[in-house]
Amino acid sequence: MKCVTTIHELRSDLKPSRGKIIGFVPTMGYLHEGHLSLVERAKKMCDVVVMSIFVNPLQFGPTEDLEKYPRDLARDTALAEANGVDFLFTPSVEEMYPTASKTLVTVKDITDSLCGASRPGHFDGVATVVSKLFNIVQPDYAFFGMKDAQQVAVIQQMVSDLNMPVTIVPCEIVREADGLALSSRNVYLNEEQRRQALVLFRSLNTVKQAFDNGERRTAALKEAAVSAISKSPEARIDYVEIREYPSLAEIETIDGEALVALAVYFENTRLIDNIKLSVRGGNAHVSHHDESQNSPGHGDRSELELCGQYNN
Ligand code: AMP
User: Which of 28, 119, 147 to mutate to test the pocket of ligand 1 (most atoms within 8 A of CB)?
Assistant: First the structure.
């Protein structure tokens, strides 16, 4: 694996690979099995895999966790190498933003709700850095986790609107064995918060059960989630939303593809999770985020297996 810190060097290193299929996995590092599942998927589909690790200041609000965001480049480098990444790109902030950028990429409408409403400017930062990284790497495929379902919708819209020559591959959520979605921010949780954090997944399952029992009204489904979360005394709801996916339009009843998305605080730690529900031809269906993928580890967990891939 080649480690690269400058744009110039990465471009020249990738020259011999032009003509091959290049896969790209953008991350903010502190790697876990969620990130590595994207690499695994990229390895299957591409000849060359580029991973970036860049904690992008542009996507953090002034009171957010930019400074304390967990970082461990030595460990990340070892994990990336062991998992078959070919090029690890770890630019500095000065390398990515040598001068204050006067250009921002803004995706309208689908950034107004959910995380976009709670984190003003966040998706401008994401769309801008992802555009820059796409211009630098020029990948054929880019791999994103459905853990950040709104981000996937935003990037897909941007790529389509701006005719970017890259195919976005959404990958399903990887979870701990007990259901908590893997996240670099999980390290912020103390033992009690870690226990209570299960309420995110539990509440999604409550919604799923109600949906399976025929409930289609989003207000009623939302209420079921809110009441499940309120059982956890340390949980503070940021939002619980059920929207059409990927448009993220408001809906009163589910009659197509819907995203159940939530963000919950434990003290200052904000966790997000989601599931997709869909009604096809009148039949209820909980979709894997990427139905073409047969994930390992789906064993016999009848309830949990509907909602992602497990990290055993
Ligand atoms: P981050 O480093 O948190 O910005 O995430 C980098 C990429 O990894 C994004 O596309 C995320 O959606 C994806 N990712 C993060 N956590 C998970 C997870 N638990 N399962 C699948 N993908 C994930």
Answer: 147
37 Cβ inside 6 Å of ligand 1: yes
Tokens of 219: 């207000």
Distance CA 268, CA 188 (A): 9
- The SS3 call for residue 242 is strand
How many Å apart are CA 149 and CA 292, to the nearest integer?
17
Cβ 48 vs Cβ 164: under 8 Å: no
Tens of pLDDT, residues 115-138: 999 999 999 999 999 999 999 999
| 298 included as an active-site residue | no
CATH architecture of 184-286: 2-Layer Sandwich (3.30)
List, for residues 141-185, the tens digit of each pLDDT value.
999 999 999 999 999 999 999 999 999 999 999 999 999 999 999
Both tokens assigned to 42? 């990229």
Indicate the fold that domain 2-172+290-301 takes in CATH: Rossmann fold (3.40.50)
Please indicate whether residue 148, judged by its CB atom, sits closer than 6 Å to ligand 1.
yes
pTM: 0.93
- The best mutation among 38, 154, 155 to test binding of ligand 1, ranked by most ligand atoms within 8 Å of the C-beta, falls on 38
> Which atom of ligand 1 is the closest one to the Cα of 144?
10
